[in-house]
Design a protein that fits this description.
Number of strands: 10
Structural class: alpha+beta
Number of helices: 7
Oligomer: single chain
Distance between the termini: 24 Å
Radius of gyration: 17 Å
Length: 207
């Protein structure tokens, strides 16, 4: 899987939402290898769009389409301070079904031990399924532009469920381990998408 994260200040939130809908109606059906997109705008005005492709080559072919370039020229007018991150190394967790998510949290940061963190996540797959039914799926994309930087996308059933199932504070005996894990991640930023747009190929002809 190949992931592209597009983020920036939304100078016209309704405009960027309209253009995402227009992309779904007019361009999605011919986007070779496109697997889906997650988009939203935070309450303080940050726009986040995560686009999934089957491969990097297919993502680049899509970017080279004249109609795609024209669409982006129009859509980018609704954004300021645009940053694009690309990731060819993507770790996924959970059983899927993310199209039903009512709340999405995007977390970005840096770690010199991303592979170890990804391994810990894989070990938690069964635990998530058993003890975190409010998490429909999770993805960690390693940024190609700066080794160690990552974007994590967590798909929740709802914001209320996410709050209701917040992890308990670690017990005193567990605190050193928890603190060691926290210290491995720096530059943390979190974006709450309370009204996410979840676009998928199955909706390309009916959106």
């Amino acid at each position: 899987m190949f992931v592209r994260v597009i983020q920036g200040r939304a100078t016209d939130p309704p405009g960027i939402r309209r253009d995402l809908g227009r992309w779904q109606r007019q361009l999605a059906a011919d986007a070779d290898g496109w697997l889906g997109s997650t988009a939203g705008i935070t309450e303080d005005g940050w726009s986040i769009t995560v686009v999934h492709f089957a491969s990097e080559a297919q993502a680049r072919r899509n970017s080279d389409r004249p109609e795609q370039r024209e669409w982006w020229r129009d859509a980018s007018r609704h954004l300021a301070r645009v940053v694009v991150h690309e990731a060819g190394m993507v770790h996924t967790y959970g059983s899927g079904g993310i199209d039903g998510a009512g709340f999405v949290q995007v977390i970005q940061g840096h770690s010199d031990h991303l592979e170890r963190i990804a391994g810990l996540g894989r070990d938690q797959d069964e635990l998530l399924a058993r003890e975190a039914p409010h998490i429909l799926g999770m993805m960690v994309a390693e940024h190609a532009d700066r080794p160690g930087d990552f974007t994590q996308i967590v798909y929740f059933t709802s914001e209320q469920d996410a709050q209701r199932f917040e992890p308990r504070p670690p017990a005193e005996a567990e605190e050193p381990v928890a603190e060691a894990r926290r210290s491995e991640i720096t530059d943390l930023r979190s974006f709450d998408l309370r009204d996410p747009q979840l676009l998928s190929p199955s909706d390309a002809y009916t959106y």
